[in-house]
Amino acid sequence: MQRVQITGNSQRKVKDGYPLLVQDDLKDPSMKLTDGSFIALMASSQFMGYALVAKHRRQLGWVLSLDESETPTTDYFRKLFKQALVRRATSLDPQLPQRVFNADGDGLGGLAIDRYQDYYVFTWYAQGVYQQREMIYAAFEAATDHQFKGIYAKLRFNVEEANLKSQLVTGEAAPEPLLVTEGDVTYPVHLADDLTTGLLLDMRPIRDWLAGAELPGKTVLNLFSQENGVTAAAAVAGAAKTISIETSKKGAKETADQLAVNNIDPDKQEIRAIEVNRYLDYAQKHHLSYDVVVVTAPTFARVKKQKFQVATDLTDLLTATLPVVRRDGQLVIATTANNFSMKKFKAAVTAAFVGSDRHFTLSETFRLPADFVTRKAYLASNYLKVLVLTLDK
What does the alpha-carbon distance between residue 196 and residue 68 come to, in Å, rounded to a whole number? Predict the structure, then answer.
């Protein structure tokens, strides 16, 4: 195994549990390392930790164990997976769709594993990590005692053949769609779909909040509805009507499918495939307003010639949204941008109220659900930020 000298600053970060490596962490930044290889990080002759080279943009790789006796073998990864699985089994309903291994939070950056009933979905974010897939799959199968029906893989890095983006790795194919239950709501998930399954597990705090909210007789507007499950959760919780806005026909269809499997007629709800800003303009011109408005703003989106970046455009989006929130209504705002701190997020939200006649009380704050294990030393891993605002009468 190649031994690599790292800088003094990097040594402190590694010791403190910071998992991400960049080229500047190397004493010799010009050093060429093979993608997918294991390396030993060194401070002169002192061992600092093992790492896996996984190049992606500015990223060089991920730190693994800091114990020199824990070499990265199949058994090492088996223990890593077993620990993650036991952690969830003791704290979560095993039937709940959940994140059973959360990348760097559980000890291996660049890989997330989700469970839907008896099926597991591996999402690979870096080719270097994926190059160790045979060892990693074998370790996971051993950790689960082969107790699963099938394993799927979704590749989130660039691959030449589109049909490799999503694939059944082993076992039997899942029903299409596979119906999973979260609380009182059923969701159709598509394990063979390109990159997504049709249900974002990290958005569960919003769905849980809706399940406990007093929605009967109220209207719920869901902006950016695709995959977040918010519309179905609101409808099952008793909302008088849901209005779902999605930029694509595919997203609109997925929202309709989620309603239908819960015996809610999509035709009695409102689902629109339209740009969010265009809909907000329409709603204001027609003096439409809603009791609950949910804004799950994308980190980055491009629709035709327009682009949206949450770090720079969230305030303008919320300024346009405020007129459609009823007096004494509630505004739920979420972002998954890992480079957008909670402090900056709150500042962007507050800025939307400047110059308006609206005021708010912060009712709830949510972060990632418990199965999305994070590292205190790596703030970017705790990326979800949700604010629930109650507006003035």
Answer: 37
